[in-house]
């Protein structure tokens, strides 16, 4: 919820903004690193691709932690269908990360010019 400041006639963010800002920051960072990745692929510059690869590795690590916590909840009796969806997207993301890393290595070693 936004509240209006009557003195400066601008919008001030409340606590709901702070709760959603982490998600928005992650989406913005993902967009920025994806643009760097596309630019790196277009110009065959592996330096720009490295930021995207590191971002993907961080995403995989956080997804792994989320999967471990979901499995713990499943053992405690909370049966969540999200586990299968999370595993599917982790496998897909892992495959894409390996393919992108392979392309990065080929560019860095000069196999692809």
Give a short synopsis of this structure.
The chain is mainly alpha-helical and 113 residues long. It is built from three helices and two strands; from the N terminus they run E-E-H-H-H.
What does this structure look like?
The protein has about 110 residues and is mainly α. It contains three helices and two strands, in the order E-E-H-H-H. The protein has a two-stranded antiparallel sheet with strand order 1-2. Strand 1 and strand 2 form a beta hairpin. The radius of gyration is 20 Å and the shape is elongated.
Summarize the topology.
Blueprint: E1 2-5, E2 10-13, H1 15-43, H2 46-75, H3 82-109
Antiparallel strand pairs: 1-2
Helix pairs in contact: 1-2, 2-3
Average pLDDT metric: 81
Sheet of most strands: 2 strands, antiparallel
Number of DSSP helical runs: 3
Structure summary, number of beta strands: 2
Which assembly state applies to the chains in this document? single chain
Distance between the termini: 51 Å
Main attributes of the structure:
two-stranded antiparallel ribbon, elongated, 2 strands, 3 helices, mainly alpha, 113 residues
